[in-house]
């Protein structure tokens, strides 16, 4: 009983429940796609939940006039896909941000700990959702995104990004904390500023892997789970450079394996 009471007092327990709920929603989307006649995660774009605009890229390729006519439709579809991208961001990126969420919560006054965690997540997930809608959404409308070679190319590009100095600086910045004001509007502003800097560092560090997850096609949910585990371990590692290089090696191996499967299949 004491353990249950202690668990209930954890200010980040609801955040962990939110991560679980996001993954359950993604699983429900896959099940709904299968029930509607799709092939699961690989056909989410045809299902009720994965509202990406893959088909609009094919529509645009039929001609400039038709592409111009479809522009309002593309904009509306990208906007409609915002909940899906927010779910993807919550499922993949919230686990990696748990140390920062805990810092924002536990360095706040007791009565505003849950509020501080919420303020952090609003800014952090807002940044990732905006990136997904404005960058990943349009990317999914391009014909190359539907190619079987899109995933190995994206994995190889992510591996190369892992070895850049900017990636390493961003990864180290993800570990930085900062003192937060205890109360009032300054406390909310301090948490938002911390979330903005942490989210920007996380975005610079992980954008390439997020692209790979977005173009993974069949088995997307499995790829998302695997990449989430990889970047979470990387961000929690005590030696960022070593972790980044090991993840780069794994990404290269994965890219080679997927490319070989495509060529042999």
Gist?
The chain has 265 residues and is mostly helical.
Keywords:
265 residues, mainly alpha, 74% helix
Q: Number of DSSP helices?
A: 13
Q: How much helix, percentage-wise, in residues? A: over 70%
Structural class call reads mainly alpha
Shape: globular
Proportion in β-strands: under 5%
Biggest sheet layout: none
Contiguous low-pLDDT stretches (5 residues minimum) are: 40-69
The end-to-end span amounts to 55 Å
Q: What's the average pLDDT? A: 83
- Let me know the number of strands: 0
Sequence of secondary-structure elements: HHHHHHHHHHHHH
Count of domain modules: 1
What value does the Rg take, in angstroms?
20 Å
Detailed description of the structure:
The chain has one domain. It has 13 helices and no strands. The chain has 265 residues and is mainly α. The chain is globular and about 60 Å long.
Layout of strands and helices, then pairs:
Layout: H1 2-8, H2 13-35, H3 54-60, H4 64-69, H5 71-80, H6 82-93, H7 98-106, H8 113-140, H9 150-162, H10 165-173, H11 184-214, H12 220-236, H13 240-264
């Amino acid at each position: 009983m004491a353990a249950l009471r202690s668990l209930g007092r954890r200010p980040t327990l609801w955040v962990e429940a939110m991560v679980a709920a996001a993954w359950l929603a993604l699983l429900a989307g896959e099940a709904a796609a299968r029930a509607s006649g799709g092939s699961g995660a690989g056909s989410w774009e045809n299902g009720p939940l994965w509202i990406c605009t893959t088909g609009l890229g094919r529509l645009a390729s039929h001609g400039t006039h038709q592409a111009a006519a479809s522009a309002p439709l593309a904009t509306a579809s990208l906007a409609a896909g915002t909940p899906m991208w927010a779910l993807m961001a919550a499922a993949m990126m919230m686990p990696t941000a748990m140390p920062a969420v805990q810092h924002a919560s536990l360095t706040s006054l007791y009565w505003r700990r849950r509020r501080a965690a919420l303020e952090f997540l609003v800014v952090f997930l807002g940044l990732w959702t905006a990136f997904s809608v404005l960058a990943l959404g349009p990317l999914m409308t391009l014909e190359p995104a539907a190619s079987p070679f899109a995933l190995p190319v994206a994995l190889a590009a992510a591996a190369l990004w892992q070895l850049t100095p900017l990636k390493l600086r961003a990864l180290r910045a993800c570990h930085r904390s900062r003192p937060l004001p205890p109360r009032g509007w300054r406390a909310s502003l301090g948490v938002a500023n911390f979330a903005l800097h942490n989210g920007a560092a996380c975005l610079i560090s992980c954008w390439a892997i997020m692209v790979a997850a977005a173009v993974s096609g069949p088995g997307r949910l499995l790829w998302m789970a695997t990449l989430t585990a990889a970047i979470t371990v990387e961000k929690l590692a005590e030696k960022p450079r070593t972790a980044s290089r090991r993840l780069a090696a794994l990404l290269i191996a994965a890219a080679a394996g997927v490319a070989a499967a495509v060529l042999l299949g």
